[in-house]
């Protein structure tokens, strides 16, 4: 996790420098600060800093992974990485539900927004519990 937090903190530092330079540059060239771009860069800085802080917090509590050790060999990363679903249709259902909700936002139809949110919650729950119920239920659960 040390690699990840270093990347996010590095991007955050770049973004805060870019926000300051952007604000200064627009103030110099346009006679006033362009607030939308400066705010977007500042909020992006905060988002990257938040992600970097989370990875730093996690990296202190787990054992170093092979990616984080300088003396690691390629073979140290071998083995099972986790369980990945071989084929699931639920991500398509989540995307379709999000499309319904976003179309409701675009056209400001409250009933379509509500339908989309309900569909997103149902399809997300279905994907979460896909391997706990039904025909795909695994033996260890």
UniProtKB/TrEMBL annotation:
Record family assignment: Belongs to the cytochrome c oxidase bacterial subunit CtaF family.
Organism for this UniProt entry: Catellatospora coxensis
Recorded GO CC terms: plasma membrane
Membrane topology type: Multi-pass membrane protein
Protein's UniProt keywords contain Endoplasmic reticulum: no
Keywords from the UniProt entry: Cell membrane, Membrane, Translocase, Transmembrane, Transmembrane helix
Subcellular location, record wording: Cell membrane
The protein's name in its UniProt record: Cytochrome c oxidase polypeptide 4
Primary role: Part of cytochrome c oxidase, its function is unknown.
GO MF annotation, one: cytochrome-c oxidase activity
Taxon lineage: Bacteria, Bacillati, Actinomycetota, Actinomycetes, Micromonosporales
EC number: 7.1.1.9
Pfam families: Cyt_c_ox_IV (PF12270)
Transmembrane segments: 7-25, 37-57, 78-101, 107-129
Record-linked InterPro entries: Cyt_c_oxidase_su4_actinobac
Catalytic reactions on record: 4 Fe(II)-[cytochrome c] + O2 + 8 H(+)(in) = 4 Fe(III)-[cytochrome c] + 2 H2O + 4 H(+)(out)
Domain of life from the UniProt record: Bacteria
Quaternary context: Associates with subunits I, II and III to form cytochrome c oxidase.
Gene Ontology biological process: electron transport chain
């Amino acid at each position: 996790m040390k690699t990840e937090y270093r990347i996010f903190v590095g991007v955050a530092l770049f973004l805060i420098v870019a926000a300051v330079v952007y604000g200064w540059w627009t103030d110099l060239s346009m006679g006033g600060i362009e607030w939308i771009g400066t705010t977007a860069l500042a909020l992006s800085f905060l988002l990257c800093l938040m992600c970097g802080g989370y990875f730093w917090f996690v990296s202190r509590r787990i054992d170093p992974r092979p990616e984080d050790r300088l003396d690691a060999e390629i073979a140290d990363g071998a083995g099972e990485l986790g369980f990945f679903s071989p084929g699931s249709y639920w991500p398509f259902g989540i995307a379709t539900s999000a499309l319904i909700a976003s179309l409701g936002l675009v056209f400001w139809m409250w009933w379509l927004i509500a339908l989309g949110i309900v569909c997103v919650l149902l399809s997300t729950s279905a994907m979460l519990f896909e391997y706990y119920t039904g025909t795909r239920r695994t033996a260890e659960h």
